[in-house]
Fold each of these.
Amino acid sequence: MIVGERKPIREILELLGDNTTVLVVGCGSCVTVCLSGGEREARELASILRIRGQSAREVTVERQCEKEFLLPLEKEIEPVQAVVSLACGIGVQAMSEMFSSHRVFPGLNTTFMGMPVEQGLWEEYCSGCGECVVHKYGGVCPVTRCAKSLFNGPCGGSQAGLCEVKPDRDCAWQLIYDRLKSQNRVEELLQVQPPKDWSFSRSGGHRKMSREDMLL
Ligand code: SF4
Ligand code: SF4
């Protein structure tokens, strides 16, 4: 899931500036699960904006990142001066494309792709590198969960199973070792992994994916 965090109210008010009629749009998917941009949070933000003197209403769609879910918003958006999207950055951009005559402000900071690991705690698990290799590492992503993205073993700085760069996080290589050990696969770590092909990653610029069998 995509994890995000709501911007501070002060920042949202600054973004809105002189725009006083506002529609807050929540998203019913990832940001609902991470408790930052769903129906409840949209209601809460609209109510805070009203207390601050704005004329604010709220609505939540199933998914802001797919335009078909945004079509029914047309009538709601037409009379307002501005929209605050509580979706991830994809949802904000989808709204901006669909309603291009309106200002659409991001109400969230999109943070990472991750997993809820306990109540109120989310952790980054994937960087979308474009060529998944987790099967070689016992299902633990070294790109994302190792602070140095190491593919051929730990850096040597780990202490008590924790990362030397971020000592409040597990060392990914400790997790990899433990997982492979539990699967009787530790000897696989002796295989030297070739350099990863980063041409599929974000570092190659804006990516696209097409499915020939689905194109019209
Ligand atoms: S290897 Fe790449 S695609 Fe797979 S989990 Fe890690 S970052 Fe994501
Ligand atoms: S301590 Fe572990 S997770 Fe941290 S950088 Fe070194 S190998 Fe990677």
Amino acid sequence: MADKPTAAFVLSLIGGIFVLLGGAFQAFLGAVISGIGTTANGTSTAGVGSVVGILGILGIIFGIVMILGGVMMYSNPQSHKMWGVIVLILSIISFATSSFGGVVIGFLLGLIGGILGLVYKPSMGPAAMQGQPMGSMPMGSTGTMGAGAPIGQMGMTCKNCGASIPAGATRCPSCGASV
Ligand SMILES: [Zn+2]
């Protein structure tokens, strides 16, 4: 539990909810403005209403992706960098496309959550700890062992004197014969 980006997850989640609700409210407002436009002032108000509504729908989508980003950062800490960037960018875009209070709170939380997710360092990074190649899966181990394993890692013996030669050596440390 300690090696989970909990703060980034919580902030992205709450930020996403605020952006989602702000977007939903704006989409509703856009529909209302469009409704007023058609009855009172023709197409001009309806145009404004549809723009407000579309931006609101975008806010809903951004909010959902931000929530997803927070969940993904938590469930799969290895993907923290990608999702941190996504939450960060979406919170900034949502701030640019809307001016509602709820979205401002969502923007700030998403911004902090995204940064925390981005800079988060898993305490147990398998790639850093073991230096294991990405492609080496347990299923393919029998195939890669025969074909991919370097010969230098195998214990070699000198053809001349029979002494064991360390991996990477070009000459026998015992008698000096070239390998
Ligand atoms: Zn030798």
